[in-house]
Amino acid sequence: MFVASSVSSLWNYKREGISEESVLKRYALLYDTIIFNRHGCAIGDGGFPDIAKNVAEMVSLLICSKGSFEDRKALGRNKRFQDLFVDCWEVVDNPEQFEREKYSVVDRQLGERLGNFCHREIRTQNGLEETSQAYDIDDVKELVGDLYADLGLNALLQKEGLELVPSFSPIIGRALEHELTQSNFPCHELFQEGLLLPDFDKFSWDELLELRTDRHIKSFREFVFGHALGAEKGLDKALMDQLQTDLWALAEDVRPNPSKTLLSGIVSNLPSPVGVNPFGLLAAGKDYYDQRNLDKKYGHVFFMQKLKTVR
């Protein structure tokens, strides 16, 4: 499963107070691959004005602010981090044509709505009245360009026939509320309430890259996407409700049997809004229920338990 990103996309998240690194860490956990559009990035063989050899090094520079210039590129030399990204220009047949078409995806009517939204947004950011013209028009142009670029990138990559799930910043959600109701996956909402995974942004990249190799991560992703899209009561809350149902079901499937032990203490520290954690009652499990069946049915639960133990 793919997700698209770019400098414009990351800036759109940053406008909403969501850091570039925070977004990419969520992407790393939720998706197999990030298709990153290098447009506007100084990537090349090292000659002036290139500052990065590949997409991974460029992203590393964008998200790492401490240390020397070379230190900030160190993450981009990590093989697992490199494998997380695919260069968009290597995916499409004609990068130059792709970049031209990216800005023509938005039709005239939608473009007018986006333009009006951007003027209102800049006024709001500057604390101005609705009719005020006392703002820099270049700020509006920059915002319009980033919104167009983000929408165009996702639309054109979907036409490539890729298994791509659009994920947009809240600013695009506010600009195009009705159009995105069914098609956008709001990854920025995941774990924001701390119900499933507290202090998500404090995970190190080494920890996240290791988690990507876990055998239960596919079940976790299927769980998230299967229950989160269209959740009316908030993404984190919807997942938590379903997790509680699965916890009780797993407790039933491994009902205590004095003769054998199985899964003793599994996920005993997961939060339980109902007041009783069923795993606090488990001391053993059914002797006929093998681990493969449990993995298939409850892999997402086991993965979330690992998340809790890592951080």
Give a verbal description of the structure.
The protein is built from 14 helices and 3 strands. The chain has 311 residues and is mainly alpha-helical. Helix 1 packs across helix 9, helix 8 crosses helix 9 and helix 12 crosses helix 13. The longest helix is centred in the middle third of the chain and has 23 residues. The chain is globular. About 11% of the residues have low confidence.
Structural class: mainly alpha
Helix content: 40-55%
Lateral arrangement of strands in the main beta sheet:
1-2-3
What about the largest sheet? 3 strands, parallel
Strand proportion, as a percent range, falls in under 5%
Tell me the distance between the termini. Answer: 25 Å
- Separate helix tally: 14
**DSSP E strands, number:** 3
H and E order: EHHEHHHEHHHHHHHHH
Q: Features of this protein?
A:
3 strands; 311 residues; mainly alpha; 50% helix; 2 domains
